[in-house]
Amino acid sequence: MNAPFQSRTAEPLALPQPYLLFLGDTQNPQFAKTAFGLRDWAGELCIGEYGVAGCGVSTGLPAMTPRQAREAGARALVIGVANQGGIINADWVPALVAALEAGLDLVSGLHARLADVPALVAAARENGRQLIDIRTPPPGIPVATGRKRSGKRLLTVGTDCALGKKYTALSLWRAFQARGIDTDFRATGQTGIMIAGSGIPMDAVVADFEAGAAEILSPDADPAHWDVIEGQGSLFHPAYSPVSLGLLHGSQPDVFVVCHSPGRTHIVGLETFPLPDIEAVIELTLMLGKRTNPAIRCGGIALNTSDMTEEAALAHIAAETERLGLPAADPIRGGAAFDALVESCLGAA
Known about the structure:
- By secondary structure, the chain is an alpha/beta fold.
- It has two domains: 13-133, Rossmann fold, CATH 3.40.50.720; 152-345, 3-Layer(aba) Sandwich (Rossmann fold).
- It has helices at 33-41, 66-71, 93-101, 118-127, 165-178, 190-196, 210-217, 241-251, 278-289, 310-324, 335-345, and strands at 13-14, 19-24, 46-51, 76-79, 105-108, 131-133, 152-158, 183-186, 198-199, 226-229, 255-260, 297-303, 328-329.
- The strands form three sheets. Strands 8-10-7-11-12-13 form a six-stranded parallel sheet, sandwiched between helices. A five-stranded parallel sheet has the order 3-2-4-5-6, sandwiched between helices.
- Strand 4 (76-79), helix 3 and strand 5 form a beta-alpha-beta unit.
- Helix 3 packs parallel to helix 4 (118-127).
- The longest helix is centred in the last third of the chain and has 15 residues, at 310-324.
- It is globular.
- Pfam families: DUF1611 (PF07755), DUF1611_N (PF17396).
- It comes from Stakelama tenebrarum.
- This is DUF1611 domain-containing protein.
């Protein structure tokens, strides 16, 4: 369980905002991806950044001490580092204690838990602050019922892990908002939860309760309301397919968008497993998704073309749109292709 002075019921975690981003002693920007993700997608929630001796990375936000950040309105320090092993370095602890003493809660998505560091537990108790380990699901998650809920839902699914499901969901959510549509982004991973300020870490939920967690993540809503749900894993992934299936059944999406990286040929980290093709993902998602929503449909394809030139990316997007008979786009590149994908998702759901 989380720190003893914080309790939650079976509902998505809500985070104290805005944030001071903690960069630790990070030298490699790749290990600060959580901080950069927050800067890029929730910049209005980020007051500044804070590092310790040896830090060689910057998000470009103002450098602040915890006390300065608290005076500027910050309510929590977020560990913006995703280092190898997901550890809390001993050299960070004095800085984290200083944040608690300054009146900030601590938020972490690392595998190592804040609540397992005695100095942090003691400082949090003494100062009446919270230690929030994102990878701690709420207690009391129910078994899924399969009951159809009101409102509309979109789920991002993938041909593999780590190819843009979160960025696609965030892009669609913002596009829906720009069109004046009542919508929420529903986060299912640690960085997404920090961006949204709430959510459920699906990779930490016991398998039997995955679909139940997805049900409470996107509850009954106004018939015109859209929940855009961040996908996890892939139905074709030899290791991570359970979370993908639980999300699919529990989310009961009206629409799903397939996320794919064109240059990828095999499952990342499992090179003996070829990547499924987009058509196979559509077919399997429709077959399994109809179990809890017979009206499920594919809204289109989100392509991660970050390793392509602009010319090559646009040509590939056009070719895939024609080949599949569905709108394809790179959500980060945007443009007319992405507008077409958005309109397809909003069509007769």
